[in-house]
Amino acid sequence: MKLLLDEHLSPEIARQLREHGHDVVAVGERSDLRGRADRVHFASLHDEQRAIVTRDLGDFRPLLAEALRRGSSTYGLVCVPARFPLNRHAIGRLVAALDALLQAHPKVDAAISLGGEIWLQDPTGS
Questions:
Q1: Per residue in 83-116, pLDDT tens?
Q2: What is the SS3 assignment for 29?
Q3: Which of 4, 82, 88, 94 is deepest in the core (most CB within 10 A)?
């Protein structure tokens, strides 16, 4: 599975995941996506075959539901629960959780087979 990290997630997370061999990019690394509407991010996912990693479910869930209603292919959402702090001191925990997810679901269709939405689990049990 390939991922796009929403703009509220640090590009450092993507960099560390790439060091683990994963195909992950962050909106903050891409001038063509920085500052753009969530709809633009969601639309770019199909061409790149990426699931988006986000905590911004209020915007992305309706976009996902609309795509599924239309019968459009989608690579889904990876939902980051509130229990994951997004500060720089907690990056390692989020990297570990995303690494575990990517190892468990290496294929792009994993999100689709789970209804378009995967909730990130904390491998530390915190």
A1: 888 888 789 999 999 999 999 887 765 445 445 8
A2: helix
A3: 4
> CB–CB of 2/82 below 8 Å?
no
**What are the structural domains of the chain?**
2-119 (3.40.50)
Amino acid identity of residue 13, one-letter, is I
pLDDT digits (tens, 9 = 90+) for 67-83: 888 887 778 889 999 88
Q: Give the tokens for residue 31.
A: 């001038």
CA–CA dist 24, 14 (Å, integer): 5
For the stretch 117-121, contacts whose Cβ atoms lie closer than 8 Å and that sit 24 or more positions apart, written own/partner, are 117/61, 117/64, 117/76, 117/77, 117/79, 118/51, 118/76, 118/77, 118/78, 118/79, 119/79, 119/81, 120/53, 120/78, 120/79, 120/80, 120/81, 120/84, 120/94, 121/97
